[in-house]
Design goal:
The protein has 226 residues and is mainly alpha-helical. The protein has helices at residues 16-24, 31-47, 52-68, 79-98, 127-145, 149-160, 165-172, 176-199, 208-224. The protein is built from nine helices and no strands. The radius of gyration is 23 Å and the shape is extended.
């Protein structure tokens, strides 16, 4: 009888639970797998509460706290849900220590801005389409940024991260019906904000410098055609 072959799973193929088990049994270096898997999700969650220049410190605190409490992860929920709850708690604790809450500005390239969506940017898109794509993304991010915190986090988890309502309910310690209500309210508020933005006469304004460049360009072409 041939000896049994031992098949080793590649780290990338390990489930979260398998990674946790191996880390707890001494393979600490595998914790990196969980960081790489959930960096984007955790960033978006914490960014729903804090400004961009505060996020990384709280992310690090979250990962350290999760590592220290890894033995408490029982698998009753998914690892992502467990990690998100720690991230939210760390965010709220950070805010309590600062003793202040502030509206997060997600608009434009200003300090504290965030890129919530990774929209495609391929060479097939001409400059005009790229500009429209970029401007539309910024306007939408601004609308998300105007949401009250309790609606913003639900919207980000559901519409950006694609999490199911039961998972969101577990992360935020809410009932599924409350999640649905907050998500519905968030969508209504975003529509209202986008309507206000679109009604603003300054939106898509052709500014002085752009106007001057257009005049210069057109006149150059007219003169060269003579």
């Amino acid at each position: 009888m041939e000896p049994l072959k031992v098949i080793k799973l590649k780290p990338a193929k390990l489930t979260d639970e398998q990674v946790v088990d191996k880390v707890l049994h001494g393979e600490k270096e595998l914790y990196e797998i969980l960081l790489k898997r959930y960096n984007q999700t955790l960033y978006r969650v914490i960014r729903s509460y804090l400004s961009d220049d505060e996020v990384e410190d709280v992310m690090q605190d979250t990962y350290i706290k999760a590592y220290e409490k890894l033995h408490q992860f029982q698998g009753g929920s998914t690892f992502s849900t467990w990690l998100i709850r720690i991230g939210i708690n760390e965010s709220l604790q950070f805010l309590r220590q600062k003793k202040r809450f502030r509206v997060i500005n997600l608009y434009g390239n200003q300090e504290g801005s965030i890129q919530v969506f990774n929209m495609p940017d391929t060479n097939k898109m001409n400059p005009e389409k790229k500009l429209i794509n970029h401007e539309g993304k910024l306007l939408f991010e601004k609308a998300i940024g105007q949401l009250p915190e309790k609606y913003r986090i639900v919207y980000v988890l559901r519409e950006v991260e694609g999490m199911k309502n039961p998972e969101i309910a577990a992360c935020l310690d809410l009932t599924e019906s409350n999640v649905k209500v907050r998500l519905h309210r968030a969508k209504l508020l975003i529509k209202e904000e986008l309507y206000k933005i679109s009604s603003d006469a300054n939106v898509l304004e052709f500014g002085n410098s752009r106007c001057d460049k257009m005049v210069e360009s057109v006149m150059r072409r007219i003169c060269s055609a003579r």
